[in-house]
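Record type: monomer structure entry
Structure origin: computed from sequence
Chain ID: A
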Amino acid sequence: MIELDNITKTYHTGTIDVPVLHGISLSIARGEFVAIMGHSGSGKSTLLNILGLLDTPSGGAYRLAGREVSRLPEDALAALRNRFLGFVFQQFNLLGRLSAVENVLLPLVYSDSRKDGATAKRDGSNLLEKVGLGQRLLHKPNELSGGQQQRVAIARSLVNNPLLLLADEPTGNLDTKSAAEIIHILKELNDSGITIVMVTHEPDLAQAASRIITLEDGRIVSDARGAGNAAKAGDAEAPVYDAAAAGHPVANTVRIANYFGQSLRALLSNKTRSVLSILGVLIGVASLIAMMAVGKGAQEEVKKNISSLGSNLLIVRPNSPRMGGVAIEAGAAVRLTLADADDIRESVPGIDKVAPYSSGRGQVVYNGKNWNTSIDGTSADYPYMRNSAPSKGRFFTHEETVSRAKVALVGQTIVRELFDGENPIGEYIRIKRIDFQVIGVLPEKGASGWRDEDDCIIIPVNTAMYRLMGKEFVDRIDVRVTDFDAMDKVSEGIRQRIMQLHRLPEERMSSVDVRNMADIQNTISSTTKAFSYLLGSIAFISLLVGGIGIMNIMLVSVTERTREIGLRKALGANNKDILFQFIIESVVICVIGGLTGILLGSSVSLTLARVAHWSTKISLVSVTMAFTFSVLVGLIFGVWPAKKASRLNPIEALRYE
């Protein structure tokens, strides 16, 4: 069954060559129980590693069941280890987070077996029953004695019905009684027809074998009969490898499901580290969702507020005059009047409506309650120009403006603070010691930046200027243009007309500021969009930081689980299996962090909207983008640790302390 022809092995340490095996030639028949003995450094462990396909010879030929295997690629060697070989180690090498039966079933994760979970678990239970652990199926390794752990390892080595069982000092860490029990189990397995090769340094244990091979300095110096009897050659049949099973959809589906199961178990085995990893992604995703919601909400709020003004609106303001880039004294500034508003309405073609505007602040009193608010005076055309028709009551008329009527419209904040939410229509309020009748309630506008747009009172502009504020000039004049395409022409016409009315020279043109709301809208929209991008960039950076944290933790995890990786490779895992497992672990962390981050970010956004009265908007695009980024972070930052894990040498990994 096993044929070694002139096998040599040389290790290269820098520029130094260290020969370990020198021309080993031997044959092991099916059903034999072979013990390999020798002092430390004789090469017995190296020979066992070559027999177990964990190492490759430097020279010579190795035929297993008639097949040359010494030059096969790593993936093929992994498949042969999984399907044809079973390993029993001195250190047991059980995974502490798995139960006894789960440890037994570990090789099936990397096989092409199409067994369902129930069948596999039944087979694992039967094997544990066979080695005397039928009552310990769900016990963890730390709940078992050394001898019991080694029995679990033996059951694990048998789960794929191997052609050859390799035992490396299987009794080295056991007491005399447990060692005798393990040797007895191995003899029973050999009697059932399984070929066994065991490395040991104890002559008494070696006598249990049917054949004892002694190595010295990398050469066979003795090949003698032991006290045991070899099984008949016909008692053990070489298992047939089902090539059709490789790549079978059912087998692949089971393997992928096993990857996820193994990843979840690994994460649950170290909850603190997993939570810290998830926390980094969670904060990144939550901040991305919340910041984009705030940015988008601000953008929508600005757009809504400006749209309510109308894109065909011009705002005329007096400006500090400048000559040669230097401001002229304040007394030389233009003062806009009500007469200017009436004149440009009549004189400049293309104008639809005009609304002079005068504003200030004042104390408002109602029924013993006081409130300081913004008081704005304007004309009867205001609701048509600003899309602000009263939600209750009516707006004042042109006649009431001319007659300086003491009527007012109040915002929603005034209704809430002074009237406790009750209908204020018909009630009288006192503004700066003058009584005004409430004739309407303004529509709710919400907050704009840090200003509450509903905290205001609107009265006729003539009343504001001459009865309340003692002003002779207006603060600005709003002009609505009939044709949007004529905005620039009308703007220039207004500027020229005011310069004529105030007899200003050409060099004083800067004294009149005419602003186009369409330009303001574009500027503010661009600014808020840039603000949104800035917030998103900050959040994205925090997500990247979380990804770097995951990479660091996964690298630590690879180091801590080096021996586990070596075990998995010995049991048949190839490089791709290890790569996928660690990538999936990283992705699972990011998926959990992403989902919880979406919930947290959405909660923060809704809380800001409810408590701080910020305008927020959670979009499906931002949620999708945040979740996609979290998965990509898991993939990108998980690749390096996963590659490092997949490239570990199984022998060195198994020896790692």
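Annotation 1: Confidence is low (pLDDT under 50) at residues 234-250, 324-331.
Annotation 2: Residues 358 and 475 are 5 Å apart (CA to CA).
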